Description:
28% strand; eight-stranded antiparallel beta sheet; T-fold
Amino acid sequence: MKNIHFRAMGCQMSAFIDGSTNRAKSLLQQVPDWFEEWEQALSRFRLQSELSRVNQQSGESVVVSELFWEVLEQSVRMEHASHGLVTPLVLPALEIAGYVDSFENIPDSADVMLDMGSGMVGSLNMLVCDPLDRSIHLPFGCRLDFGGVAKGWAAHQAMRRLANYAPALVNAGGDISVSSLRWEGSPWRIGIVNPFEPENDLGSVQVGRCGVATSGRDYRKWMQGGMQRHHIIDPRSGQPAETDLISVTVIAPNVMEAEMAAKTILILGSHAGQDWLETQSHLAAILVFENGQMQQTSNMQIYGWRE
């Protein structure tokens, strides 16, 4: 087993290949460069990124790269599947809530940017897109933040490249993409972090080909006007989501769907979130309530869930 650990996209990243040759080591050493390339295109915190350029030209038609187009298409699918609850059009709302810089630069004990207004959150249906020349027209005043979708997409892409050589797992800040069972047919063991005690796990699962993602309001949080704020925006209000859940972990066929589902459930809250889960029988989930209680779907046992 070979592995590499590094920082990218404001998160701790890890990649594993179930192989021990020099080729496996060489491939892993390329992974940070892949993430750097994707971040250069997709980060809202880099003023020269393609995403920043598109946002700066809202109201105009802009031709974008294949990479950007692919992530935008994934965002459209996620917005549709979540009934509009997961959308990249939350950037103005995030900034109004105080998320104006890369998270490591936001002090958690000091107030930031006091503006308690509501940011406009629309639908990607407002965009005019032409697949023939990959041009998009973002309505004036609207801006994109690919955030979690970019992280999940990047984890999936890195996994696919590594899987051409051997079974692989990529963990992009909690968005985990798994190619298959390991060489000898055994599953990968993944710990699910306890949001109240980050140094400990709630439990663990054993998985093969799938995606695992956790969405929570336990880490990316800050103070604004004496109120605690977080980065999960409810598009219906334009404000940080008011929910009785502190974190949600989902296992899905791929990491992008897991990311979308975890965020959808968190925004909906436990009651509506569980109702939505009942329509998604192919998903397994663990819900952690703000009062410390925990609930998991019955099919978590398929993945050897144990506390």
